[in-house]
Amino acid sequence: MIPRNEVYGIDLDENDDNILSSFQTSAHTRLPEWREDINNIVGLLHMRNMSRVNDSQGLDRNALEREMEKPYFIPESTPLHTQLLNFQQKKNRLAVGVDEYGEVMGLVALEYILEEVVGEFTSNSSEER
């Protein structure tokens, strides 16, 4: 799990320039979006949809709201094999881990679960040289 304090996401209460800058500097393909604080995650945005929310006038907030996927919340006590099955059935790759009080603990990515099961892997062959 990516711990809460290391989660990179978008605070929708920020101004448009800050949000666009966060999108442009992100190294991630999916970003959580929240209002006020990270415990109020309202959606996940896939970066491939950025062209739909960024037009010539700047950020289109209505389009941003439309393009967000509903967040998938899981309890922190979910066993690994159960979560793998849940990701497969729901066709999700990213989930928000929460504790028994609904506080965000971090993000759970399918990639990290697979790395725990089979070990680290990479898609970049240049790193091996």
Structure description:
There is one protein chain. A 4-stranded mixed β-sheet has the order 1-9-8-7. Helix 4 links the parallel strand 7 (73-75) and strand 8. By secondary structure, it is an alpha/beta fold. 32% of the residues lie in helices and 26% in strands. It contains 5 helices and 9 strands, in the order ββαββαββαβαββα. It has helices at residues 16-25, 50-53, 61-67, 80-90, 110-118, and strands at 2-3, 10-11, 30-34, 41-46, 54-55, 58-59, 73-75, 94-98, 104-109. The mean pLDDT is 88.
Global outline: globular
Distance between the termini: 29 Å
Uncertain runs with pLDDT below 50, 5 residues or more?
A: none
**Total strand segments:** 9
Structural class: alpha/beta
Q: What does the radius of gyration come to?
A: 16 Å
* Structure annotation, total helices: 5
Largest sheet: 4 strands, mixed
- What's the order of the H and E elements? EEHEEHEEHEHEEH
Mean pLDDT: 88
The percentage of residues in β strands lies in: 25-35%
- Which range best describes the helical content: under 10%, 10-25%, 25-40%, 40-55%, 55-70% or over 70%? 25-40%
In spatial order, strands of the major sheet run 1-9-8-7
